[in-house]
Please model this.
Amino acid sequence: MFDFFCRYNPGDACLTGFNNPFLKVEAYSLLEFDVANISTDNCAIVTLNRRKNDWNDTFSGSMFTVIVYGYLFKRGSDTVTIEKRFTAHDVHDWLVSGKGIDVENFKGAYSIFIYNHELNSISVITDPLNVRYIHYCQFKGTWLFSSSLDAIIAYFQEQGVEPVLNWNSFFQHYLLDFILDEETFIKGVSVVPPAHKMEVDESGLKLTKYWDIFKEFQIEKPVYSKRESVRLINNYLKNHISNYIDTPEKSSVALTGGYDSRTLTALLGSKAPSYEYFSYGYGLSWDMSIPKKISGKLGLKFETYLLDNDFEKKFGPNVVLALSLSQGTALFTQANIPYMYQNFFSEKTSILSGLFGSELIKYPSSRGLFIDEAMFSLLFSENLEVSIDKLLSTLPSEYSQILMDNELKEQFVASIRKHPAIKNTYNTPQKFFYYLMMLGARKYFAKEIGMERPYLDNFHPYWDVDFIKLLIKTPYTWIHHWKEKKSFIMNVQLHQLYAKLIQKNNPRLGWQISSHATRPVFLTNLVFLPLLALDYLRFRKKIKSETILYPVKLHENHIKSISESKKQELAEINQQFEAKTITKKQFFKMISLSQWLIANHIKS
Model:
């Protein structure tokens, strides 16, 4: 199951009418799936299922109907190791026995949807770092729940109600890259927050927070030595990777030129040769040539997937998919994600990826991916009110006029003032850490995983509460080595953990150059420092110059095509860009969001 839509009315014993809004969404006409329906007097559910799916993530029994959106693992008796992956049927039986879903017994990346037949109630439980969104709203006395915002929009329209653009979310996305709270682009539709249990019945809605990020991730001085840290992290990751990954017939492993995926490959140990590995991109970049060389040396099965002429031909439909599957938050430039997984992974049900592998190891200096300049200025502002005013002064006149509405302006400013990632008084590295966990990394990964969901599951053992708790107790994370500027020596120090894990588990992987222009083996001992520096000087510029990040011409052609076909709707955005009142990044955001709004017939 990769998507679902539910209508629930606790007081209406006869739910009738339109039940499959996915049929009205353009993007879903481009997907292949099987449809299943589950209905009771008060609750009607439609699920979309991958045709290659063999995992029981939906189950309706005598007492409960359960949907496991994502993946859920039962902890072992020591609460650290994994006992087994839970199916929806397992969850049903667990609930029947009188037990609940809690972080003491379970872990994973999940949203659990439960309909209690006896109590006629809905429960939704999200994991602490949730990246698998369930949207909800109340509509004419009926509660709607869905993994797809587009499906809820389609249901509104089928019922003769035009959805209203949430301008507060619009301005947050436009100015700060992310919607700060759990609202969406549609007024009245929200997302169940991470680390919450939602209960809905005849008496209304109740949200309970069960886990606090500031209490659970307490950042103090490292408590483990370097040697002990390597031992603990090695044991932890090996256990989790062995449980996360599926069989070689069903799962592939991402392998690029960096350290995250190479470490996963090393930790697979003797199982590594059984799996297929892959990398993809524009042109023969180092992120494809390096893993290809590694695979050749180690005898691994490896495929490079080029985004070539076929991708160019299919770019338009994949833009539609990217925008819809990301709930309108993706850029059109991310069309490569749905294209990649629908074209090259028809036989696989999952991948093992290094998602979040680097974000706590190497210094988070990349502006624009998890944080842009505007958010950076707010996060570390000495005077938040001045910084907010400065931010608003960058708006084009057309948008400034909309914000002249005092109520809207106050909503926007309050969203910034009250957000716990912004208003806290922690020191700089701690504040940045909490921002990544709550907003930057979490919302970026949610967008990426959302675009992959119709095709396969992305298992990501680094984006894991217990791993992060362990890592911040070691001396290997940037949190304990904060500096405003990057340096070669600092990067060497911060990559030592993965270098040691690689050498500990598969030393042959340590001798191959990385896209960071270093060999892992040379990071493990100071005696190798001259050789490390020599490699860096030899490869750094070459790797940088030969890495193709974006197909500029393809993007320009798409903008031209969409601007011509939607000339009237996009005239204002094009004029703003030509007048240089918005940046190229803002232009891409507005072109993308406008295309999503137009596809969903939402007036802005």
In short: The chain has a mean pLDDT of 91. The chain has 23 helices and 18 strands. Residues 3-213 form a domain with the Glutamine Phosphoribosylpyrophosphate, subunit 1, domain 1 fold (CATH 3.60.20.10). The first strand starts at residue 3 and ends at 8.
